[in-house]
Amino acid sequence: MAERSQTAPEAGNLGRVDQVSEFEYDLFIRPDTCNPRFRVWFNFTVENVKESQRVIFNIVNFSKTKSLYRDGMAPMVKSTSRPKWQRLPPKNVYYYRCPDHRKNYVMSFAFCFDREEDIYQFAYCYPYTYTRFQHYLDSLQKRNMDYFFREQLGQSVQQRQLDLLTITSPENLREGAEQKVVFITGRVHPGETPSSFVCQGIIDFLISQHPVARVLREHLVFKIAPMLNPDGVYLGNYRCSLMGFDLNRHWLDPSPWAHPTLHGVKQLIVQMYNDPKTSLEFYIDIHAHSTMMNGFMYGNIFEDEERFQRQAIFPKLLCQNAEDFSYSSTSFNRDAVKAGTGRRFLGGLLDHTSYCYTLEVSFYSYIIGGTTAAVPYTEEAYMKLGRNVARTFLDYYRLNPMVEKVAIPMPRLRKEKPPPYKCPLLRGSASNYPNGKGDKKSSVNHRDPSNSF
Ligand SMILES: [Zn+2]
Fold this sequence. Notes:
It comes from Equus przewalskii. Keywords: Carboxypeptidase, Hydrolase, Metalloprotease, Protease. Its cofactor is Zn(2+). The structure is a single chain. With 453 residues, this protein is α+β, with helices and mostly antiparallel strands. The chain folds into 2 domains: 3-124 and 423-451, Immunoglobulin-like (Sandwich); 130-402, Aminopeptidase. The chain has helices at residues 130-141, 194-206, 211-219, 230-235, 260-273, 305-311, 313-321, 342-349, 379-396, 438-445; strands at 3-4, 17-21, 24-27, 43-47, 53-59, 76-79, 82-87, 93-98, 104-113, 120-123, 148-155, 161-167, 179-186, 221-225, 278-289, 295-299, 331-332, 355-362, 365-367, 374-376. The strands form 4 sheets. The chain has an 8-stranded mixed beta sheet, sandwiched between helices. A 5-stranded antiparallel beta sheet has the order 1-4-10-6-7, with no helix packed on it. Strand 6 and strand 7 (82-87) form a beta hairpin. Helix 3 packs across helix 9 and helix 7 crosses helix 9 (379-396). Bound molecules: zinc ion. Zinc ion binds next to loops. Zinc ion binds at residues 189, 192, 287.
């Protein structure tokens, strides 16, 4: 019998579990803290399993209807003996309107447990926890790089760190030096874990010895607040902070007690804007998207046609550098519903030489131009998008001639293929299931999504 782990993982999210038959469970996502509207992120462990035990999990209370599950997305899995996250095969995943659950959209997946001693973990997307992030920053700090600085810009409601990184050559931080600043933020929406991988890709590239990174550090000051909502990340929320606020709708008037991390970042940006020695040139807020493929951007609409045109340059250049970035999915808008976002607020505040974007990346996959096959994102692919974002500043500022013509060999990536999980087909005859006689068959078949399509 599969049992839920007594010890939830960090950023774990699982509410109620109903066993509906010997081999089938209904799982309820726990809504965001203080905000029942958002139910997307899940992350839970299963232990005390039996070898060859086949189970169907139904996640029955998603708050969204449109989903990349329709396009082949599948939950992630890892286990004690196979600690690298893998996506389940999409053929074992179904997404459909279920009459048993008030016609809510249900995602069902079949799984065959194969090692009794393993603890299995399932998640919506690759987790990236607050603890992992803190360890990562600690490891960077220990390297004592003279162009990397970490400070605590503030604290969350639950006293977690709001980290601010500054990456630039020390000469740019001399008293009175003029600064061209690129400001980057991430994880304002805590369930959007790809944001952290992209952000880490940017950081890793900028602190590297790559000649492009060296030129970028000489010319620009990168200010990065990679985790704007540390409480939400820790708690396993999808969209909100501890107190149930979507922080990316509160840029107009953040409160120091209700939205302290947002308040801290906004204060710093306004202070930089008012400093005549500082030119805040870019603001990029990194998110993940639950219904779109690829990486893409949202920008603003300006009355000034020339400014509007210039705003398209960065995403066009990024599109040339990153095969997973789509310029055609990039759009510019001034929807009322987005008025409290960082991109919109800062687009209105900062002067005409500044550009503010939301960088979105799919929770699932990208399609390379000229092909139709969706390539699922890996952690490494998200980080690569981050490296390409960083690299694009070289093109934007036309710094290419500055790059020394030294060929630095890129490290080869170790490609290892972990042993696959055995997964039974969810669709099909009752013989796929243990004891799959007629009585069980009927309970499976009325959930069979083939009836719903
Ligand atoms: Zn978001």
